[in-house]
# Entry
Amino acid sequence: QVQLVESGGGLVQAGGSLRLSCTASIRTFSRYAMGMGWFRQAPGKEREFVAAINWSGGSRSYADAVKGRFTISRSNAKTTVYLQMNGLNPEDTAVYYCAARPGDIGALYVREYEYAYWGRGTQVAVSS
# Structure
């Protein structure tokens, strides 16, 4: 079983930045080519895709709402994925979830149902 733990959320003013981290349990994670992603769920809304990265880290995908402001990356050991969020605005307020799934080395996964493992989420709040 893969366990994912997010951190780095908090309260920030509009225009500010936050860096989220998601660390996976090491023993199981290293056996598979895990694609990883970030999703978010705002109050009263469905969970939505934010960003994804493939196993090697060479391919990334972003939701239109965050392109140019957010950057997804992962550690050399592949067990930690980051989400650098710049230019935050109140519409970015949500619980942010990390997700992972085994798959092809080069594959990107952008749909919620494609992911097998989920973290518990970290709250991001942006004040105007």
About this structure: The two ends are 40 Å apart (CA to CA). The mean pLDDT is 93. The first strand starts at residue 4 and ends at 7.
